[in-house]
Amino acid sequence: MSSVALAQPLNPQWRRALMAVGIYTFVLLVIYWPTLMSMISIWYRSGTFAHGFIIAPVSLWLIWQLRFELSKITPKVQPLFILPILGIGLLWLMSSLVDVMVIQQLSFVLLLILGVCALLGTEVAHRLLFPLAFLLFMVPMGENLIPPMMDFTASSTVWLIRQSGVPVYQEGLYFSLPSGNWSVVEACSGIRYLIASVTLGCLYAYLTYNSTTKRLIFVAFSVLVPILANSARAYLIVMIGHFSDMTLAVGVDHLVYGWLFFGIIIFLMFLVGSFFRDLPSAADDSINAHGKAYQFDAVQPASGKTSSKSSAEKSQRPIFLASLIILASSSIWPLIPSLLPENKTALDNFSLILPVVPDGWHYQANPEWHWRPFTDGADLTHASFYRNGDSVIGLFINQYINQDQGSELVNGLDQWIIPEIKGQQWHLLEQKRTEVYIFDHPASVEQARIKNSQHELLIWRWYRIDDYDTSSPYVAKLMEALSKLTFQQTSSSRIYVVTSVTESVDQSVLQAQSFMSQLSPKLEVVLNAQGEIH
C-alpha cells in the first residue's frame, strides 16, 4: 500500500457522517450553552474538578488514534438511539425545573454521547465506547461521597494512631492528641485524590491493557488505592505534627505534603500496573503508527453512474430525515420551560403561622447557641425555642413557595456550619441518617452533632413537600419536579430541630423525639396551611 493511497479523501459516507456529527455538536453547544458554562465555571473555581478542561481534548485524541480502524467501518444512522435520547432529555428537563445543575450537566454530556452514537451507528459506537464514555469525567460530580469519606478517614487515622501507641481521644470527626487537636474537614476527605486517581486510572487502563478483566481490575485498584492512601496521608501528617510539637504539617505545608504524597502514590500505582501491560501486536503497531493496512473502498466503475447517483440520493433521504429527528429529540428540551405557565404566588400578604406550644413546654428566648441554619432564598422563615425543665429545643423552618436558581429548597450551600457567620467556632462531630417518628409516621432525617468550646448540639434536618417527608435531597427534587410538570403548587419546607447534648447523645435524641411527638399534629397544620393571609 502506497502513501499515495493515504492521501485520498474520505469516502462519501464518512464525509456525510462527520458533517452530521459536527452540526449536531454545534447545535447542542449553542442550545445547552448555560449548562456547558455552569460546568466550565466549576472547573475554573474548583481544584477538585479542574481536570474537566482536558477531558474533551483527550477524548478527541483517543478518537484520532482510532481513525484507521474506523475507516474500515461504514457509518450508519441508528434511529433506535432516539428512545434513550428522549429519556435523557426528559431527565434534563426535570432537573432544569428544580435547578439540579449536576443532573443537567450529566444529561447534556449523555445527549452529546448518544447523539454521536445515533449518527454513526452501533458498530462505530462500539469501537468508540471508551473515548465517548470518557467525556463523562467532564461532569463535576462525586461530592456526595465526601461525608462517608470523611468518616472513614477519621476512623482509620485514629486507628493507625492507636496502633502507634500514641493516646488519642476521638469524638466523631474530631480527635485530640497530647500535642494538640485535629479534625477531618472536607478538604481532608480525599475526594480530590479519588476523582483524580479514577480519571487517570481509567485512561491508563484503556491505553495499557487489551483485556477487559485487566482494565476492570486496574480501575478498581485506582479506586481503592487513593482511599487507603488518604488515610495514610492523614496519619503521617498528624504524626509529623505530633512529634514536631505542632510546628510542621499544620499550615501550607499540610497541603504540600498531601499532594507530594499523592503524586508518589499515583506513580507507584502506574509502575505496578506497567508490569502487567499488554504489548500491542506488530499488526496493530503498523496500523496505528503508519496506517499501512488502511485501504479505501474500491472506486465504482463509471458505467451506470447516473442511475447509481439517483439511487444514492433516494437512499439519503430517510437518513437525512432520521438525522433531523435525532437532532430535534436532543434539542427541544431547553425550549419547554419557556412554554410552561408560571405558577408564582404573591407573598406580600403571607406569613408563617406559629405552631401552638405543646403541653408542658413554653417559649423561651434564644439560648445563645450562636448557631443558625442556612436561610438564604427562603420565602418564609421561622425560629422559636421551647423549654421543658432542663430540656431546650430549637425549631427552625424555612419555607419555599416560589423557587428559582439560588433560592431553592435543596441548596448545596446548606451546611451544618455556615463559615461566614462570625463567632461560630463549631466543628462537625458526626453526620448520618436516622429513623425517627414525626407527623404520626416513621421518617428518615439527617442527624448531625456539632460542638464548640461551650455547647454541643444535636440537629435533625429533613425536607417536607406538601405532606411528604424525606431526608433525601434527590427525592425532594424529584417530588418538586413532578409537581411542576403537573402544574401543581407545592408547599416545600426545610425543617430543623435542635437540642443541646448535656448528658448523652441518646438522651438528647429522646428529648427531640418527645418534643416532635407532641408538636407534630400542630406543626403539620401550620405547614399544610402554607402561610396565612393577614
What secondary-structure arrangement, pairings included, does this model have?
Layout: H1 3-6, H2 12-31, H3 33-45, H4 52-65, H5 67-70, H6 82-97, H7 101-120, H8 122-127, H9 129-133, H10 146-163, E1 169-171, E2 174-177, E3 180-183, H11 191-208, H12 212-243, H13 252-274, H14 282-290, H15 305-331, H16 336-339, E4 362-364, E5 380-388, E6 391-400, E7 427-438, E8 441-451, E9 456-465, E10 468-470, H17 473-485, E11 492-500, H18 505-529
Antiparallel strand pairs: 1-2, 2-3, 4-5, 5-6, 6-11, 7-8, 8-9, 9-10, 9-11
Helix pairs in contact: 2-7, 2-15, 3-7, 6-7, 6-15, 7-15, 10-12, 11-12, 11-13, 12-13
Number of domains: 3
Q: What is the 3D form? A: flat
What is the succession of H and E elements? HHHHHHHHHHEEEHHHHHHEEEEEEEHEH
Cα(first) to Cα(last) distance is 87 Å
What low-confidence regions span 5 or more consecutive residues with pLDDT below 50? Answer: 1-7, 286-308
Main sheet: strands, sense, barrel: 8 strands, antiparallel
Give the count of helical stretches.
18
Cα radius of gyration in angstroms: 29 Å
Helical content stands at 40-55%
**Oligomeric grouping of the chains:** single chain
Polypeptide structure, described:
The strands form 2 sheets. Strands 4, 5, 6, 7, 8, 9, 10 and 11 form an 8-stranded antiparallel beta sheet that branches. The longest helix has 32 residues, at 212-243. It contains 18 helices and 11 strands. A hairpin with a 2-residue loop joins strand 7 (427-438) and strand 8 (441-451). With 534 residues, the protein is of the alpha+beta class. The protein is 51% helix and 15% strand. The protein folds into 3 domains: 3-140 and 324-339, no CATH class; 144-274, no CATH class; 362-529. The chain has helices at 3-6, 12-31, 33-45, 52-65, 67-70, 82-97, 101-120, 122-127, 129-133, 146-163, 191-208, 212-243, 252-274, 282-290, 305-331, 336-339, 473-485, 505-529, and strands spanning 169-171, 174-177, 180-183, 362-364, 380-388, 391-400, 427-438, 441-451, 456-465, 468-470, 492-500. Helix 12 runs antiparallel to helix 13 (252-274).
